[in-house]
From TrEMBL:
GO biological process, one term: xenobiotic detoxification by transmembrane export across the plasma membrane
Lineage start: Bacteria, Pseudomonadati, Bacteroidota, Sphingobacteriia, Sphingobacteriales
Subcellular location: Membrane
Keywords: Membrane, Transmembrane, Transmembrane helix, Transport
UniProt topology in membrane: Multi-pass membrane protein
Pfam families (alphabetical): MFS_1
Name of the protein in its database record: Major facilitator superfamily (MFS) profile domain-containing protein
Length: 397
């Protein structure tokens, strides 16, 4: 039992948890620069390749809705081991197929595995820490997690250029294998008291959470903020390679830069955590909306990869600010049911993101800087409406 372990072992397990956090970002983003190459190699349309990401996001989101309560009942340790083994196996399996349909099936399985890993890791912090220390670790959660989206496309671009797009999945298998060994040798169960599985009780807990308007509105902000970032991740590789005529390595550098914008946003949010709602949330959204409108106007006269990425950098900083702000506050709503709350929150966020990515795919080809700006604007308007609703709920309370 980790709660009764030495401080040195708890520190080691905490470090291991932080090391595992970027894995979900790697699973999501490492093959993004390879989208054009995968489409050519498999002889399919770009929308079919985007579907492999949408399938993963949807599976990842839906499974988190149920994983949290299950982990509160059976513990965190054994499910983490199983998740890492499945991730290792599925990553290797993807390298042995040239069928988009089969890849989508394995990506759906990966979504379930990563959801187990992420929800268990989030709950582990709530198991081992309390109070300000827990709040401090949770605020670092998104910052450390963002190392995945930062480094993954950069690494993936080089892996695809030097080897093949399948090298991305060999890397994921290796990452999972290392974490699996560390878990086997050094980790253990962190939950103090497992809750009995009770459908009635679980429904009651979910009902309480879903009736909390600030909790749900916060999840909508998280989903829309992340959707803004995923918008570039899904469409950017095709714009950069097909319109601006750069290689997958350049795609990797662009996503690397934009990954840093997410970290910067997280660090800014951490420093602004105790500010009033208006300064903490409304001001950043106003800046983001202004940047998007400016990009749209500039796109009418001039298009360049440097202009597109520069504006996206600022836009993604604000998304990082909003995501970290609401992630920390939302995780503190239900500390007694950390696994369930984390699973519900993460699940709904990724369901929102998967729906957004599906809408992006069916809305037509995003082939220009202006196309990207229009879709940024649509998401930003939705974000403004949600935050306005949140402000009204807080004013009434």
């Amino acid at each position: 039992m980790l709660r009764q372990a030495s401080q040195e072992r708890i520190k080691l397990v905490t470090l291991m948890a932080f090391i595992s956090m970027p894995l979900s970002g790697f699973v999501t983003d490492i093959y993004l620069p390879s989208f054009p190459a995968m489409a050519r190699n498999l002889g399919v349309d770009e929308r079919d390749i985007q579907l492999t990401l949408t399938t993963y996001l949807l599976s990842y989101g839906i499974s988190q809705l149920f994983i949290g309560s299950i982990l509160d009942s059976i513990g965190r340790y054994r499910p983490r081991l199983l998740a890492l083994f499945i991730l290792l196996l599925s990553s290797m399996a993807i390298t042995y197929t040239d069928s988009v349909f089969i890849i989508c099936l394995w990506r759906a399985i990966q979504g379930i595995a990563v959801s187990i890993l992420v929800v268990a890791t989030r709950a582990l912090f709530a198991d081992l820490y309390q109070g300000e220390r827990l709040k401090n670790y949770l605020s670092y959660f998104t910052i450390v997690w963002s190392c995945g989206p930062i480094l993954a496309p950069f690494l993936g671009g080089y892996l695809e250029k030097i080897f093949h797009w399948k090298a991305n999945f060999y890397f994921l298998a290796g990452y999972a294998a290392v974490l699996l060994l560390l878990e086997l040798f050094y980790s253990g169960e962190s939950i103090a008291q497992k809750k009995k599985i009770s459908i009635g009780e679980n429904v009651k807990v979910y009902k309480t959470m879903l009736q909390n308007k600030l909790f749900i509105l916060g999840i909508l902000v998280l989903g829309l903020s992340y959707s803004i970032v995923m918008l570039f991740n899904i469409t950017g590789p095709f714009i950069i390679e097909n319109t601006f005529h750069f290689t997958s390595v350049t795609i990797g550098y662009c996503t690397l830069l934009l990954g840093f914008s997410w970290v910067i946003g997280g660090l800014i949010a951490k420093r602004r955590m105790n500010m009033a709602f208006k300064k903490r949330v409304a001001y950043p959204i106003a800046v983001q909306l202004t940047a998007i409108v400016s990009l749209l106007v500039v796109s009418c006269f001039y298009q360049s990869i440097y202009i597109m990425v520069s504006f996206a950098f600022l836009i993604h900083i604000i998304s990082g600010v909003l995501f970290t702000t609401f992630f920390t506050s939302s995780m503190l709503f239900f500390p007694a049911n950390a696994g369930t709350a984390g699973g519900l929150m993460g699940g709904l966020v990724y369901i929102i993101t998967s729906i957004a990515s599906s809408l992006i795919s069916i809305s037509g080809n995003v082939s220009t800087q202006a196309d990207l700006a229009v879709r940024y604007l649509l998401f930003a308007i939705l974000l403004v409406l949600v935050v306005f609703g949140m402000y009204r709920v807080q004013a009434r309370g």
